[in-house]
Write a structure and sequence with these properties.
The chain is of the alpha+beta class and 305 residues long. The chain has a single domain, classed as Jelly Rolls (Sandwich), CATH 2.60.120.620. It is built from eight helices and nine strands. It starts with a strand and ends in a 20-residue tail after the last helix.
Length: 305
């Protein structure tokens, strides 16, 4: 298996052309450069920053800064906060899942029109599952994903062909920062019947890895990207997390789109989940006894690369 940087990166503009669609079908992924509106990215990053300030109670450190989320200081403090306040860091994650800024970015016209074009459908036929903002700190060993197919985690359509993965960098992401790895043409293996590995503990992400003998058949392509780029790839293509060995948090958005009008689409319901740590804090401060006790389904939702 050869390791190389992606050369599938010459596409710029609002919509995919015939050559880029052909490349997607052949290789299983495509990169559209400089297409995401900056205001969408800044809005989500501002939300990340304000949630950090809320749970850390650290507002003074950034006084007078116009874009504090772009500073090395913010990354340094966010990394340290995860080390010392893991439950509060988890509350930031949970809060971001329902962020309007996240929803607006994931459903931006530039995104959904290209998704629909690749899936050969209309935007009105699309469904999205679990869009989320990932905050991947350096040297994380709990949430790195080995080589996998996203269809293993998202069974909204029978064989994965009526859906795709949307991966949006919220900052420039180099190989050092953990750019994702993709195996071109690996989607041609089809939907594999893979076994889920036993988790080390509740803090580790669920893993359903592709066997090494299959991974070695394909090239390992590293995909560095810049803020504003859009990566779309097949639900069956092999891909894995890159290792973040930088001094910054890797900030990305991920979502999976599906054709809801397809015959093999499986409707799904997102359960309301109330963060138990924050629930307990609210009950100590206010009368919030009416908040139900519940269980996260599935137990860990940090899917993706």
């Amino acid at each position: 298996m050869a390791v190389r940087n992606s050369c599938n990166e010459k596409i710029e503009g609002v919509k995919l052309n015939d050559d880029s669609i052909k490349s997607y079908n052949e290789n299983g992924y495509v990169i559209i450069r400089n297409i995401i509106p900056k205001k969408r990215i800044d809005s989500l990053l501002e939300n990340v920053f304000k949630l950090y300030c809320k749970y850390s109670d650290d507002f003074d450190s950034f006084e007078g800064m116009d874009y504090p989320w772009q500073t090395e200081l913010f990354h340094k403090k966010l990394i340290e906060f995860r080390k010392t306040n893991l439950e509060d860091f988890g509350a930031i994650y949970d809060s971001l899942k329902t962020s309007l800024s996240l929803t607006q970015l994931a459903s931006d016209d530039q995104v959904v029109e290209n998704v629909a074009k690749l899936l050969k459908t209309e935007v009105s036929n699309l469904s999205i599952s679990e869009p989320m903002c990932r905050l991947d700190v350096p040297d994380d060993k709990r949430n790195l994903f080995d080589w996998h197919q996203d269809r293993s985690y998202f069974p909204q359509n029978r064989d994965g062909l009526n859906g795709l993965v949307c991966w949006i960098p919220l900052m420039d992401i180099t190989e050092e920062m953990g750019a994702i790895h993709i195996s071109p043409k690996s989607h041609l293996e089809g939907n594999l019947n893979l076994l889920q590995k036993t988790k080390k503990d509740l803090l580790h992400s669920t893993q359903t890895p592709v066997p090494n003998d299959l991974v070695k058949k394909y090239d390992d392509v590293i995909v560095p990207v810049k803020a504003g780029d859009l990566v779309l790839f097949n639900m069956l293509v092999f891909h894995s997390s890159g290792k973040n060995i930088s001094s910054k948090v890797r900030l990305t958005l991920q979502g999976r789109f599906h054709i809801s009008t397809a015959d093999d689409f499986i409707p799904f319901e997102l359960n309301n989940y109330y963060n138990p740590y924050i629930k307990q804090k609210l009950e100590e401060k206010y009368d919030c006894s009416d908040i139900p006790n519940n269980i996260r389904q599935p137990p860990v939702t940090q899917y993706g690369a």
